[in-house]
Design goal:
The structure holds two protein chains of two kinds.
Chain A: H1 5-25, H2 34-61, H3 68-73, H4 84-87, H5 93-114, H6 120-148, H7 152-165, H8 177-185, H9 195-208, H10 230-245
Chain B: H1 5-15, H2 28-47, H3 49-53, H4 62-87, H5 93-101, H6 119-136, H7 145-173, H8 177-196, H9 208-213, H10 221-239, E1 249-251, E2 256-258, H11 264-274, H12 278-291, H13 293-305, H14 307-312
Antiparallel strand pairs in B: 1-2
Helix pairs in contact in B: 2-4, 4-7, 6-7, 6-8, 6-10, 7-8
Classes of the chains: A mainly alpha, B mainly alpha.
The structure holds fe (ii) ion (FE2) (2 copies).
């Protein structure tokens, strides 16, 4: 038995959502079309809502009674337990779309499994998130097809985006004592179990998009232990500076 | 002196307060004037995403962050409906965006001021969205149907934005001394530019008479400015913040607030391109547009290869 496994598990889910939301929000007023500016912000808002629901539950499970803002703004880099994929920088639109395809496919499978969580609050967040995330995956899928099968430049950009991000997907499916305990408690799936479904969907989309699945021997990981990539520190510095500069006030 | 039968019919529709629809006959001047006004309104919504968007990644709480993201997204939506309304007049969005980039169409001068602190986000919601509502409520009865209908939808969201801005400033003003000072400083900087948002004084306003005759404009700039001041002056009292206008006071006889003379010279300078952020806002929009060119080209190439899927999408 791992003490507090459920809380660590929900915190991982919440951090994935918050960090990905923040990255997507950085696109505001910068997207290639107005429609996509709106769509990316939509996705970011859904993810932020999901994170907030999960922080609320985490605070009960870990018994600290922390607020959502304590989790988001008062933890340091080493205390965030999101996976490395969600924190990867936006890059060009192809990089963001590739990251979205890989993440939303994973998150959709995860939310679907979480709808039957024994934790009523988690299953309630999941019920709403399934609908939202299936839209996220559709958006990413549509753009993967258009970019992969668009013109030479878009194909080339999509290929290099996938090559850069693919190594980070291994970490999504890592199993550990926390994941196994959460699974045994019925709180949520061991991510390792989500791999076949994820792989089948991603392969089919990449195939339709005339893209090939990259090969990589490098499988970076560490996010779940708070070991992040360098750019993450800058993201947190920007996100947290105002909240921390006037401690304890009401905004 | 209307001799053309089309024109007589057109004017009769306007005079009886009915809407002109895209397929109806309309004078060239009416069409041109509307295209310009709706396009500039759309550009304002889009450029207006930048100053507030500047704080999305630094919003100090998750709740405020969600509100701000939703607000900036609403502004993008407003831009979209407005470009669509302009398109019913026979232009396309890409052309209008080119005119923006060439500086041949403008956007509201208010967005050429920088957002220097978090309180600016609240001040913009309260004052800038407040001035926008004052301008736009009469446009809900504008003679051109698609514009009037877009405004009905837009106004609902703008009043929501104004309340949220007010609430955010209220929290700051009633917070710690540093927060209060931040709120007051923001109001000091945003007050006059917001009062100027209602346009040049009536004595200098060109095109107003024709726009009134066409049922596009219903109140003069100075009338709208008075309405705006009458709305926000008592709200400032509730906020506990002092507008930077020593002449602002209730005038019992007029039943309105008296207020000082805005610096219209400053407005002219900012409108003509020399505000603090004109160059930055234009460059940001142009850079995003250029950076997205390959994406739009790819989407067009895909649509040409897969006509069926794209039509269904
Ligand atoms: Fe707006
Ligand atoms: Fe607004």
């Amino acid at each position: 038995m791992v003490a507090g496994a459920a809380a660590v598990y929900t915190l991982r889910l919440a951090d994935d959502c918050l960090v990905l939301s923040h990255r997507l929000a950085q696109w505001s007023s910068r997207a290639p079309t107005l429609e996509d500016d709106i769509a990316l912000t939509n996705v970011a808002l859904d993810l932020l809502g999901q994170a907030r629901g999960l922080y609320a539950r985490t605070a009960e499970l870990d018994g600290t009674g922390r607020s959502e803002d304590d989790y988001a703004f008062m933890r340091g880099e080493r205390e965030f337990v999101n996976c490395l994929l969600v924190e990867q920088e936006n890059g060009d639109f192809a990089t963001t779309i590739a990251r979205q395809l890989l993440c939303s496919t994973f998150q959709l499978a995860q939310w679907q499994a979480l709808t039957t969580s024994t934790d009523a609050q988690v299953s309630a967040v999941a019920a709403k998130a399934v609908k939202e995330t299936s839209y996220h995956r559709d958006h990413a899928t549509d753009w993967t097809l258009r970019l992969g099968d668009g013109n030479d430049e878009s194909h080339r950009r999509m290929e290099s985006a996938l090559a850069a991000l693919w190594p980070f997907t291994a970490e999504l499916f890592e199993s550990d004592a926390v994941a196994r305990e959460a699974d045994a408690l019925g709180v949520g799936p061991d991510p390792a179990a989500l791999r076949p479904e994820w792989q089948a969907y991603v392969r089919r989309v990449l195939d339709d998009a005339t893209l090939v699945v990259p090969e990589s021997t490098w499988t970076p990981s560490g996010g779940r232990q708070g070991l992040h990539t360098e750019s993450f520190g800058y993201m947190l510095a920007e996100m947290q500076h105002l909240h921390r500069s006037l401690p304890g006030v009401t905004w | 002196m209307i001799s053309d039968p089309h024109e007589a019919e057109f004017q009769a529709l306007i005079d009886s307060d009915q809407r002109i629809e895209p397929r109806d006959w309309m004078p060239d001047g009416y069409r041109r004037s509307l295209i310009r006004q709706i396009a500039q309104h759309a550009h304002s919504e889009i450029i207006g995403m930048q100053p507030e968007g500047n704080w999305i990644t630094r919003a100090p709480s998750l709740r405020r962050k969600a509100i701000l993201m939703a607000k900036v997204q609403d502004e993008a939506g407003h831009g979209l409906y407005l470009y669509c309304a302009a398109e019913t007049l026979g232009v396309d969005r890409a052309e209008l965006i080119d005119l923006l980039h060439q500086g041949r169409q403008k956007y509201s001068s208010i967005f050429n001021y920088p957002t220097l602190t978090w309180a600016d986000v609240g001040a913009i919601g309260w004052l800038v969205d407040g001035a926008a509502i004052t301008n736009q409520i009469p446009l809900c009865r504008c003679s051109f149907g698609p514009y009037a209908r877009a405004m009905v939808r837009v106004c609902k969201e703008e009043s929501f934005h104004q309340r949220q801005g007010f609430e955010s400033l209220y929290a700051l003003s009633h917070g710690t001394p540093e927060q209060h000072e931040m709120a007051q400083d923001a109001v000091n900087r945003w007050w006059w530019p917001s009062v100027e948002m209602l346009g040049p004084p009536d004595t200098e306003s060109t095109h107003s008479a024709q726009s009134m005759a066409w049922g596009i404009k219903r109140f003069s700039n100075d009338e709208l400015r008075q309405r705006f001041v009458d709305m926000v002056a008592p709200q400032a009292v509730v906020l506990g913040l002092t507008p930077p206008d020593p002449e602002l006071r209730w005038n019992e006889d007029r039943g309105h607030y008296d207020f000082g003379e805005p610096d219209f010279e400053e407005l002219r300078r900012v409108v003509s391109g020399d505000g603090p952020c004109n160059r930055q806002r234009a460059a940001h929009h142009l850079a995003a547009h250029d950076e997205g060119a390959w994406v739009r080209a790819a989407a067009a190439a895909y649509a040409a290869k897969h006509p069926a899927t794209s039509a269904a999408a």
